[in-house]
């Protein structure tokens, strides 16, 4: 008989989830990312399950898990970051059961926002659950470019942007908050709507919490004595240079700064041996067409969802 339980240790068949997730990563980002995930994921997942801010749920069929969800709390925001149902148990609605329980747990813990923007690594149908929870849904796309292999000789060339410095942190945070004011993706990033929330993000990325970083992966464009645009990148998976955020302040849009930030970051990822350049974007965001012109291709479409408390 199937049952949902909160877990703080890995189920005995965790390897099944790692294997299927690694296959999904391979389809998106290639063999290098897939192989590294396969080698590292079990230890990373076991460590995260023990963290106080993490709530993990599993649907069990006997001793083994057949579905897992992971959520976390950051400030006033709850984040559903992972739902996976084993292929042998798909189309049973298990993902909806996990989502309903995850959201119930986050709301009981008093969060004012709930967001989820993970790229599914298995087939999921969350719409039945979302329809009962009062969530807004956003159509999203994972975009990837395969980078050439001969990267060690990649030239630096001319850069409009420069690597960020520690003293730029507060100005970057303000640029990030300004860029997300009224942006269509603001519901996905409620913490970035304030300078303090944006500063916490800057510090988080700079500390490597979003993936391996080098100074060249966080970039700014200077103008008029301030920062006109900022880009945050990291190696989120082995060989994957991922753009976390790229923002141009409203007063400086239309000048090609977003394209320059992207091109400069791509060049630095390539120079440091990345074999994939990637990001996620809302499908109704005009920037999607810019990313296509720069060489990124939509690899997967998925649905993100958001909720905010009223009042």
Summarize the structure.
By secondary structure, this protein is of the alpha+beta class. It has eight helices and twelve strands.
In percent, how much strand structure appears in the residues?
A: 25-35%
At the fold tier of CATH, the topology name of the largest domain is Aminopeptidase
Q: Sketch the major β-sheet.
A: 12 strands, mixed
CATH architecture of the largest domain: 3-Layer(aba) Sandwich
Average pLDDT number: 93
| Low-pLDDT sequence parts | none
**Secondary-structure class:** alpha+beta
Give the number of helices.
Answer: 8
Shape: globular
**Amount of helix:** 25-40%
Name the CATH superfamily assignment of the largest domain.
Answer: Gcn5-related N-acetyltransferase (GNAT)
Number of domains: 2
Rg (CA only): 20 Å
Secondary structure tally: strands: 12
Q: What report would you give on this structure?
A:
Helices cover 33% and strands 31% of the residues. The mean pLDDT is 93. It has eight helices and twelve strands. Helix 1 (14-29) runs antiparallel to helix 2 (31-49), helix 3 (94-108) packs parallel to helix 4 and helix 5 packs across helix 6 (195-206). It starts with a strand and ends with a strand. A twelve-stranded mixed β-sheet has the order 1-2-3-4-5-12-6-11-10-9-8-7, with helices on both faces. The chain is α+β, with helices and mostly antiparallel strands. It folds into two domains: 2-134, Gcn5-related N-acetyltransferase (GNAT) (Aminopeptidase); 146-305, 3-Layer(aba) Sandwich (Aminopeptidase), CATH 3.40.630.
